[in-house]
Amino acid sequence: MLKIILFIRSSIFYLGFFSSLIVFTFFCLTVGLFLSLPKRYQYFLYWNKFIVAWLTATCGIKVEITGQENIPNYPMVILSNHQSPWETIFLYQFFSPVSAILKKELLNIPLFGWSLALLKPIAIDRKRKLTARQAILQEGKKRLEQNISILIFPEGTRVKVDENKKYQSGGAFLAIEAGATILPVSHNAGYFWPSGKFLKYSGALKVNIGKPIETAGRSARELTEEIEIWIKQNQDSA
């Protein structure tokens, strides 16, 4: 009986998810083309806010955030664990304006990818690691200079809650080279919106925002290990 209820609630969520996506992407690809980048962030991300609220209304997933006082009032490099599609939606609007590091294939998705491209993400080819690292460094510096924060998932891909994956140091390297601050973020979204699964589970999805980390005089590997330890210690009890 419980699974039937979860299936119904999840079905209603996806009905709203995809129908609203069509409406918002149509707006982005028509009106959005004539808006400046700051205005695009302002209007495009209404969809992200809607989805977070819709998820609460249909599936009973509430968001609890701690550490908001730690958020600097200047652009930064945000490093977060990656368990679910949820954080790509929530963190993108919560820390807006923010440019995400993502695989370039996403920009080829009809409507959604085309709209996403208008927000100037940093798209990389994961198969070409050296080129990808150079793109992150070059484009990342440019975005930070434009007062846009950078969102990076150092695991490089979504990881199940019961699995571990070594963190990559690209985000820390960018922060060091750009003289930027790192903001660590942990969450437990994988328990409520498991990656690759249809069913959504109700409960308190917790987000923990850590204290900003200065990068001067630090090595990328040292910083990455520190952030990995902090996130893994906090992601289940965020």
Please name the defining characteristics of this protein.
single chain; 238 residues; alpha/beta; Glycerol-3-phosphate (1)-acyltransferase; seven-stranded mixed β-sheet; 8 helices
Characterise the protein shown here.
This protein is an alpha/beta fold. It has one domain (2-234): Glycerol-3-phosphate (1)-acyltransferase (3-Layer(aba) Sandwich). Helices cover 45% and strands 15% of the residues. It has a 7-stranded mixed sheet with strand order 1-7-6-2-5-3-4, with helices on both faces. Helix 5 links the parallel strand 3 and strand 4. Helix 1 packs antiparallel against helix 3 (46-59). It is globular, with a radius of gyration of 18 Å.
Run of helices and strands: HHHEEHEHEHEHEEH
Proportion of helical residues: 40-55%
CATH class: Alpha Beta
Number of strands: 7
Silhouette? globular
Strand order of the largest sheet: 1-7-6-2-5-3-4
Q: SS-based structural class?
A: alpha/beta
Poorly predicted ranges (pLDDT <50, ≥5 residues)?
Answer: none
Tally the structural domains. 1
